Amino acid sequence: MRQPSRHILSATLAACMLALAGCATPGAPVALETRSTQQLLEASTDADWRTPDPANLLYMDLDGGRVVIELAPAFAPEHVANIRTLARGGFWDGLSLYRSQDNFVVQFGDITEEGVPGRPIGSARASLPAEFDRAAADLAFHALPDADGWAARVGFVDGFPAARDDRRGNGRAWLAHCYGTLGAGRDMAPDSSNGTELYVVTGQSPRQLDRNITTVGRVLQGMELLSVLPRGTGPLGFYEDPSLRTPIRRIRLASDVPVGERTPLQVLRTDTPLFDAVVESRRNRRDDWYVQPAGHIDLCNISVPVRTPPSS
């Protein structure tokens, strides 16, 4: 494991080579230019941003606004395919967010009493294999230098916080349970999820769930609509009073929404020198308020910036 001082030096040298921070001559003390995350983003170019595929975006429309979710077919292809089918069939339209557990998750789907048939799922599949992790060989894994308590390596894959384990030679990778992660609820059997019951992490990152539940995406915009929901008073945060549930107007794929009704968004690419500099600006805060740089950052403390395209 690298020591924190080496984390700082490595990131600093990389930033120097890329002219994203002040540099010193070899052997001399390193003098860093104070450059905030906002300043780095303001200096970004169009090449530093990507536009998500509308076929991988879910729009959850609530009375309070829209939650935009990016799906991750590279990690859970069968679940994502089923979620697309469910969305096209209007499965969640008129259902609700029926659980809000403090410092944990909100959950939505078709909650019914025991013995009462649930809503038909149309042409979607009722049973799917567990997709807790996948082979890492063909993923563009952009690793962080920071140590992690839950995995041998952590970093990002196409904007998604991810973890990787090569220690046993099997090269497996998975989406991490960070704030905003979307997962597929399951029962006791590992293969008991099919995407009809979904949850979003709204509390401290429950990384103990990694590789135990299929994770299928993350929220890009609208987390404030989920994180402020009143907490359920029943066990595990379920609402005992059905009137407290938050109704879902509808959930659609962005690709099925007329272009004029879509939410224009761009996401900062996580495989660029600029992103490395943004992470370093959060790892070691150098603005005047901070007395001591941390020298470390947790994977789930890195929020990937999202913006409205400048031309919109």
TrEMBL record:
Coiled coil: none
One Pfam family cited in the UniProt record for this chain: Pro_isomerase
Keywords assigned: Isomerase, Rotamase, Signal
Enzyme class: isomerase
Protein name in UniProt: peptidylprolyl isomerase
All residue ranges annotated as the PPIase cyclophilin-type domain in the record: 65-253
EC code: 5.2.1.8
InterPro entries, A to Z: Cyclophilin-like_dom_sf, Cyclophilin-type_PPIase_dom, E_coli_cyclophilin_A-like
UniProt-listed PROSITE patterns: CSA_PPIASE_2, PROKAR_LIPOPROTEIN
Signal sequence coordinates: 1-21
Gene Ontology MF term list: peptidyl-prolyl cis-trans isomerase activity
